[in-house]
Design the sequence.
């Protein structure tokens, strides 16, 4: 690990000043410390923001939900309002990492985490995320766990977050505070596809701080859930996953929110699946037909072609679990 300085921010103002000068924010540190130990990340200054007042979960005036950036994953998953209004978020969090990590890691840190691509974490391998212009070893290497959606010639790494998939499905908004004031950005625009600049992973500006994630109010009743398919049951990243939320009234699907994880360079919203569902009555045939559209645009690599079919089956199964049939 390389030498660095460490400071603890006593206020949001102090944190923003340190961030503006190039400091890297840290709270739980469950990802950043690992990357520093592996010399993938080499920040000169760490700014501890764990004491900032960003730990509340509140219902918004319109009936949505606002989760503070420093709410621990375990606390968010167990919060009664999260469980009651958006169980897909609780389930995604509970299927993430390990119990020990969930007790430390924060919501803001979770969506800021970097890829789990083994080539990214191996400093001897070519990786455009780590060293722009060096190449992408995964394209011709062992790429079983890599993305089939949203890839580019420069990068095929997946985004590892489970809860970000739920946020993408629910069309959440990320709240930011920085030297130029406060702003909001859709979760779908906050996490960036690699394109030709895979080293830029989030639409966050120098010195900005995530303050909260807000989930908009959705029609009631709303049924939702998260399904994760992985090589082992505990402490493993998704091969595929599906976050589904459905509003059914009068026997007809009025709203459908669907996103996939483990298959995209970012949490992958599935608008074609959603469009196929809206206005239809739940049925086995509908779930199958809608799920067929989940892998549209997929570009599989040598070792991850199985993900095309696995994605469709995962989406179909979760539609059936959440929507049922009558």
Sequence:
């Amino acid at each position: 690990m390389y030498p660095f300085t460490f400071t603890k921010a006593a206020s949001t103002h102090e944190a923003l000043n340190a961030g503006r000068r190039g400091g890297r924010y840290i709270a739980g540190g469950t990802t950043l410390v690992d990357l520093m130990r592996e010399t993938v990340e080499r920040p000169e200054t760490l700014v501890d923001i764990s004491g900032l007042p960003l730990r509340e979960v509140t219902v918004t005036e319109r009936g949505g939900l606002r989760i503070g950036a420093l709410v621990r994953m375990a606390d968010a998953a167990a919060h009664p309002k999260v469980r009651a209004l958006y169980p897909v978020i609780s389930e995604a969090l509970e299927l993430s990492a390990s119990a020990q990590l969930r007790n430390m890691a924060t919501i803001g840190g979770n969506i800021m985490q970097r890829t789990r691509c083994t080539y990214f974490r191996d400093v001897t391998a070519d990786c455009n995320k780590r060293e722009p212009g060096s190449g992408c070893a995964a394209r011709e290497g062992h790429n079983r766990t890599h993305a089939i959606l949203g890839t580019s010639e420069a990068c095929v790494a997946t985004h590892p977050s489970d809860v970000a998939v739920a946020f993408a499905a629910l069309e959440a908004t990320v709240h930011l505070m920085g030297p130029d004031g406060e702003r909001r950005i859709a979760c779908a625009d906050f996490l960036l596809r690699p394109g030709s600049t895979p080293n830029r992973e989030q639409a966050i500006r120098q010195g900005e701080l995530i303050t909260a994630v807000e989930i908009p109010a959705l029609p009631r009743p709303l049924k939702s859930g998260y399904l994760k398919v992985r090589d082992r049951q505990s402490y493993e990243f998704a091969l595929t996953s599906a976050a589904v939320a459905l509003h059914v009234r009068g026997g007809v699907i009025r709203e459908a929110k669907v996103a996939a994880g483990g298959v995209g360079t970012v949490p992958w919203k599935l608008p074609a699946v959603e469009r196929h569902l809206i206005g239809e009555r739940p049925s086995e045939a509908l779930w199958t037909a809608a799920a067929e559209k989940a892998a549209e645009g997929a570009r599989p690599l040598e070792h991850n072609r199985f993900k095309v079919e696995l994605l469709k089956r995962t989406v179909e199964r979760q539609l059936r679990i959440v929507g049922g049939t009558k």
Summary: Residues 1-51 form a domain with the Uridine Diphospho-n-acetylenolpyruvylglucosamine Reductase; domain 2 fold (CATH 3.30.43.10). The first strand starts at residue 5 and ends at 8. The chain has a mean pLDDT of 96. The two ends are 58 Å apart (CA to CA).
